Amino acid sequence: MSESTIPGYFASATEIASVLITAGIDAVMPPACVLCAGAESTDFHVATQGGDTPQFHRETHFLCKLCEHAIQNSWPSRSVPCRFCGMPRPADQVTPHELRCGSCPESGFAFDDVIVLGIYQQAVREAVVATKLARHASLAAALGRLLGELVSKKVSETPVDLITYVPAHFWRRMQRRSMGGVAVMASEVAKRLSQPVEPIVRLTRPVKKQSMLPDSERAANVRGAFALKKSYAWQAPRIINEQHIMLVDDVLTTGSTASEIARILKAAGAARVTLAVVARAVRR
Fold first, then answer.
1. Which of 100, 134, 217, 268 is the most buried (most CB within 10 A)?
2. Is the pLDDT of residue 6 over 80?
3. By C-alpha distance, which of 227, 145, 129, 229 is closest to 181?
4. pTM for this structure?
5. Is residue 163 part of a domain?
């Protein structure tokens, strides 16, 4: 939703024309849900706040209400995500966000917290898989906005200094003809937090696709495969001392990749690493 304040009781001719032109375009080509492609209405109206400040509102839903509800409410009934591993845990447990759950690995992860939007199944899985392709960048942006809204509620006590994301290998980006959906998601999260997003992590060697490997081989596949990018000036190491870094990814499965990157960030001086993911894979 975008919003512009109109001084006085009348909007400018330029703003009125802009709204009417957009409305005309939407009448011919109605906005559609970026996941199911169902038509979604766009509303224009003038409202007042405090009785004396008229405002134009234009509401565009990038996801229809059904798809948005399916993504935001994919968790099992009466469950919440564990803040340490992201797995569902009973919501009625005592201090559920202070103690590790039974799904947490004994060794833990290098990241400090994880914020999860949904469970990797049905609509969430369909959406995440689609964002792997460049032509679905708008869907990646929609997921990033939802993740950003959730993140903004969770990190209020520990503000984030910098947002980054799990990098894709160069040849994989070439095959997909894009930087990847994760980069788009991270950008939207950064906008919501009003913080910079930077690709500060790079791959040092090719790695096999984690999704094609058994769980037992994933940690070894990414061990030593990441490094912190150097700044362009004098090739000096980037300074992230004492910073709270948010690492964005699309799916959390074993946590091997995110944990390895978090280890690199902390070795470079990061004080805290929070992982934010669209989906948590749950094995049955």
1. 268
2. no
3. 129
4. 0.78
5. yes
